[in-house]
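for the writeup, i need someone to sanity check this before i put it in the appendix. the sequnce is what the collaborator sent (i think, or maybe the updated version? ugh). structure was predicted straight from it, no edits. if anything looks off just tell me and ill rerun, i have time this weekend
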Amino acid sequence: MILPIIAYGDPVLKKKGKEITKDYPNFDTLLENMFETMYNASGVGLAAPQIGLPIRLFLVDTTPFAEDDVLTKEEQDTLNGFKRVFINAKIVEEEGDDWAFNEGCLSIPDVREDVFRKPNITVEYLDENFKSHKESFDGLIARVVQHEYDHIEGVLFTDKLSSLKKRLIKGRLTSISKGKIDVDYRMRFPNQKKRR
């Protein structure tokens, strides 16, 4: 089932997510719905707060990035088929010199800005079977994981922008929070009542 994506301005996007256990209700269905919602919106990542759940869960599928012609064959091969579920993730290490990349977010449509992040990270997390992992990622995969990880920490990419950039996009962010935007996927705006 395709779920509405929560728009900028909703308090759930600023909450730090709570850890979950393997007895989380209807977990398999939740994962299916999240993947379906992400693919429907042409995203490469989706975090539970973006569908209104303040829990430490996000998923990533960087395959669409692999089709970018500016990438090397090796980068395309790395991104193609990289699909993971991250439960109760914790970034334990971030290394390297900050690098800028133009980021967007399904909760903040039509706003893209350069965000600086570390190129190398190590993450401890549980997969969809609640099996424990500790993995290192770099490049675009690291960036997508960091972006989604921020969501479960209650941080949006716009929080990482300079005060000047924030002022420049303030009007667009206000429009998004009021639902004054056209998107080709389901969204729920802060002043909208939940629909069951």
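The mean pLDDT is 94. The domain at 5-188 is CATH 3.90.45.10 (Peptide Deformylase).
thx in advance!!
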